Automatic annotation (TrEMBL):
Keyword set includes Hydrolase: yes
Annotated protein name in UniProt: Patatin
PANTHER family in alphabetical order: INACTIVE PATATIN-LIKE PROTEIN 9-RELATED, PATATIN-LIKE PROTEIN 6
Sequence motif DGA/G, location on chain: 220-222
Lineage: Eukaryota, Viridiplantae, Streptophyta, Embryophyta, Tracheophyta
GO biological process: lipid catabolic process
Biological role: Lipolytic acyl hydrolase (LAH).
Chain positions of motif GXGXXG: 35-40
Keywords: Hydrolase, Lipid degradation, Lipid metabolism
């Protein structure tokens, strides 16, 4: 007997409800990497350990971080690492392993942050934007076909913040926006350059989207979102196209990697005139943003603190640009308390990552498609904005 249209609709709704409940047990996994000034990248060893543990627990040396996370966010140096381990090599696989990405950044550090002196009378230390741009462009251009990669050329969704001087507001780059309109698609190297433009050390970075309709005058994303975890979580909660089964934070599993607090000697904090130095103020802003976001997310996940893990370096590392892995991983972890303050944990950072990886591997690889092919779903932007 032929089923009526009403009966088919009832069965269809029941099926959708069943699928929603079944998928509800699968967490959407978020990786966030802080910005971190120019003194070092403590998140590098944490990322290497994360990928190594994934490989050990899967028994597959070709496993990569992007296989087990559904979205990656980064600010400043964190964005550079996030873009490199997420960039599509043309086959749906990441262009860099984590070891390769961290080694590239470490080896080319002095080129990325090439010191130059500016000013004729009152000379001050700054960095060469052109030198950083050259390194970033080299890293995020595919060798096999010479393609300059854009936000749409990533294995998984990517979130990167900066601050736009033209609109006097934060500007968040995302793959979701880029796939809907070329007016929001930007070269990856430009995205990384924009979020790394420390105003105390770099000039603002002026650039446009791939179609030339959207322009931005960017300074450091760390001023407003040095810890991009909240931006990533908000994006997932509101992006129903890529994450239709997410209804709240109970559907999320978040790993947030810090890059340590600002490390400036006491005598450099105050200038001869008695005012705080610009570089120190920028550092305070970064640390304040990161700590505030950590507190907010700790409160949001207080019902199950194991769904939100923050790995932060709390001591003063001696390793410089490439701190020894042991220094980062053997530090005892610190956890934000729901109503303020922190507590020292018995587990080390390395142990906390190991436990997190067990949950990642148990939940299986991500089911998101590597490269989205979405039809345009938005009307033409007005004035390219």
């Amino acid at each position: 007997m032929e089923l009526s249209k009403v009966t088919l609709e009832i069965f269809s709704k029941l099926e959708q409800q069943w699928l929603s409940q079944r998928d509800g047990n699968k967490k959407t996994r978020v990786l966030s990497i802080d910005g971190g000034g120019t003194n070092g990248i403590p998140s590098g060893p944490a990322l290497i350990h994360l990928e190594h543990q994934i490989q050990l627990k899967t028994g597959n040396s070709n496993s990569r971080i992007v296989d087990f996370f559904d979205i990656i966010a980064g600010t400043g140096i964190g964005a550079i690492l996030a873009a490199m381990i997420n960039a599509d090599d043309g086959t749906g696989r990441p262009l860099f392993s984590t070891k390769q990405a961290v080694k590239f950044v470490t080896d080319r550090w002095t080129e990325m942050y090439k010191v130059k002196n500016v000013g004729l009378v009152h000379r001050r230390r700054a960095f060469s934007g052109e030198s950083m741009e050259k390194v970033l462009k080299q890293a995020l251009t595919r060798d096999i076909d010479g393609k300059v990669l854009t936000l749409t050329d990533t294995c998984k969704p990517l979130i990167v913040p900066c601050y736009d001087l033209k609109s006097s507001a934060p500007f968040v780059f995302s793959r979701a926006d880029a796939t809907e309109s070329n007016s929001y698609n930007f070269d990856l190297w430009k995205v990384c350059r924009a979020t790394s433009s420390d105003p105390a050390m770099f000039k603002p970075f002026h650039f446009t989207s791939v179609d030339g309709k959207t322009s931005c005058s960017a300074i450091d994303g760390g001023l407003v979102m040095n810890n991009p975890s909240a931006a990533a979580v908000t994006h997932v909660l509101h992006n129903k196209r890529d994450f239709p089964s997410v209804t709240g934070v109970e559907n999320l599993l978040v790993l947030s990697l810090g890059n340590g607090p600002v490390n400036i000697s006491p005598e450099r904090k105050i200038s001869r005139s008695g005012y705080c130095r610009n570089q120190y103020v920028v550092g305070v802003a970064r640390d304040g943003v990161s700590e505030t976001v950590d507190q907010m997310l700790a409160n949001a996940f207080c019902w199950n603190h194991t769904d939100y893990i923050r790995i932060q370096v709390n001591g003063c590392l001696t390793g410089g640009v490439g701190p020894a892995t042991e220094e980062v991983l053997v530090e005892r972890g610190v956890e934000s308390l729901p109503f303020g303050g922190k507590r020292l944990l018995t587990e080390t950072n390395g142990q906390r990552i190991d436990n997190f990886v067990q949950r990642l591997v148990a939940s299986g690889t991500s089911n998101l498609p590597p490269s989205p092919c979405k039809s345009g779903a938005v009307s033409q932007l007005v004035n390219g904005r």
